[in-house]
Amino acid sequence: MKSIFLHLLILLAFSTSVSFAQQKPIEALDAEKLKGKVEHDLVVAQDGSGHFRTISEAVKAIRVYLPKPITVHIRAGVYQEKIRIDGTLTQVTFLGESPETTVISYGDYAAKDNMGTFETYTVQVLGSDLTFKNLTIQNTAGPVGQAVALHAEGDRLVFENCRFLGNQDTMFASGEGSRQLYKSCYIEGTTDFIFGSATAFFENCRIHSKADSYITAASTPAWAEHGYVFMNCKLTADEGVSKVYLGRPWRDFARTVFVNTEMGAHILPVGWHDWGRAAARETVFYAELQSRGAGAGDASRADWAHVLDPKDLERYQKPAVLSGHGRDADFYGNRWFGDERDSSFNLEASFQKDKKSFPQIKPVLLSAGPELEVFENQVYKSLGSRSLQLDVFKPKVSENPLPVVLLVHGGGWRSGDKILQRSLAIRLAELGYVAVPVEYRLSPEAQYPAAVQDVKEAIRWIKTHAADFGVDSSRVAISGSSAGAQLASLVGLSDLPVHEGKSDLVASSQVQAIINMDGVLAFHHPESAEGKVAAEWLGGSYEQVPEIWDEASPSYLKNPTLVPMLFINSQYPRFHAGRDELLEKLEKAGVFSQVHTFPDSPHPFWLYDPWMEPTEQLIAHFLDAIF
């Protein structure tokens, strides 16, 4: 009976839907009986309306090394708790209602029972892949010496819209190899109130000094490229505070950099302190770039500190600081520290660039006419809070199911949008096809092979919904331009498990035809000029990850699923590197292929007249021959 009871409790935990909007009581769970078993979202509420009354009970109940992410929703209240999150706890988001109303509070300090600094924490985070949002973590001991609010040593930790309140040693951001992101947070303290050995990125944070003292005390390991990086932050202080240093080295090799930070008048002109150890000046790296405000760097800064050149800015951007070696994927394949959307590749920007060399060109931006049906922003894949969408353009009138063409936009795997394929989709729909521009994850959000898996899922989705859109699922083509052409070719030719990914849809991702518009077929190739942009997507340079560069090259697939292919190219050979080798394979296998080159054309020729019409005609004639 006891085991049946436990089983029912676990099922209850799994089946309970939680949200702050849900007001009806949730049946409480027994943390002791469920210790290490729960792997579903939980609610913590002091009034008993959740699964648990304390955060510690919820932490105790969660399964170690969770198979998928969960969220612990923490309702408003002041939680007087000392919380330890062990290294076996991963993939959890602790979500408060707001930092003003959801508060975790405790008051230990170093001199209390001789416990020492590192046992004074209110919240200790040793686990990795954890996120904390909309919370306050505070140590209420007061100005009694070292008293830590947050003790964080795990890797891939995210704190967003949180407050960290205390005095001396408020935040221990530490752990060799630990990477931590603090986004839109408020951090206050007196002396060394941000200290430790982590690589930590502070983005749009307010750093508030409560006394004349030191803000940071980094102990960066000698081998680490980055310690603390403050980006777009604001340094403020209590009234009367006027002598604050940016930092001092807790250990040799400390690294602390402030970028584009507003500094109040409380920051001393000298800026930095050596903690009375002149030798440390030879090993530490303290620097600023584009500081502003009354306390900004000037000629009075310590002569052993650095003022960076604007060309160094890229080195201190979030991806450069927080990326590890290889891929930085979370459970869903997204970069754990979030993405910065790159909108640099768009129709207007391309036109302004290309018209300098091709003054006769005209950008094509069409609207669907009354003869077409349009279904925009159809969600084909959900990844936690992230949804991927596609658009469907089709003739309103058709007696029979129609062949479908999925269209994959370009942009160097890091930029672009499905709207870039809209005009071509409209033209193909007018010619009697169902045309489907597809969104996929770009490299700032998720590295290879996420985009390949996304496009394959879009194929499965459109086949699964074939009846809804009048699609003949036995006649599926995929078209891509530039980076999208490389993706389309890899999607169409490969059935490797790494490219298929995981899916709940039973439909196949196989296509019957591929259109490649100026997309590379081999990354490491004599004709290829791919470098940094490709490396960002593939997780490193060719010298670092040669096997990935080859795996992502359609021409280098060992056992490709060969289908008819159309290659439409500009005048630039670099954009069809590997094409000729693939053509040989197609010819040897007796598989139909065509090649057309537009002389004297820009790379993104498909975006402009006079090439749009011949491009659509080439595609239509090719597909008519196949289908």
Automatic annotation (TrEMBL):
Q: Which residues form the Pectinesterase catalytic domain?
A: 41-312
Q: Name the catalysed reactions.
A: [(1->4)-alpha-D-galacturonosyl methyl ester](n) + n H2O = [(1->4)-alpha-D-galacturonosyl](n) + n methanol + n H(+)
Query: So which domain of life are we looking at?
Result: Bacteria
EC number assigned by the record: 3.1.1.11
UniProt signal peptide: 1-21
Q: Which Pfam families match?
A: BD-FAE, Pectinesterase
Q: Where are the transmembrane segments?
A: none
Q: Where is the active site?
A: D192
The BD-FAE-like domain, residue ranges: 390-569
Kindly indicate whether the keyword Hydrolase belongs to this entry. yes
Record-linked InterPro entries = AB_hydrolase_fold (IPR029058), BD-FAE-like_dom (IPR049492), Pectin_lyas_fold (IPR012334), Pectin_lyase_fold/virulence (IPR011050), Pectinesterase_Asp_AS (IPR033131), Pectinesterase_cat (IPR000070)
Keyword terms: Aspartyl esterase, Hydrolase, Signal
The pathway where this protein functions is: Glycan metabolism; pectin degradation; 2-dehydro-3-deoxy-D-gluconate from pectin: step 1/5
User: GO molecular function of the protein, one example?
Assistant: hydrolase activity
- Family of the protein in this entry: Belongs to the pectinesterase family.
Q: What is this protein called?
A: Pectinesterase
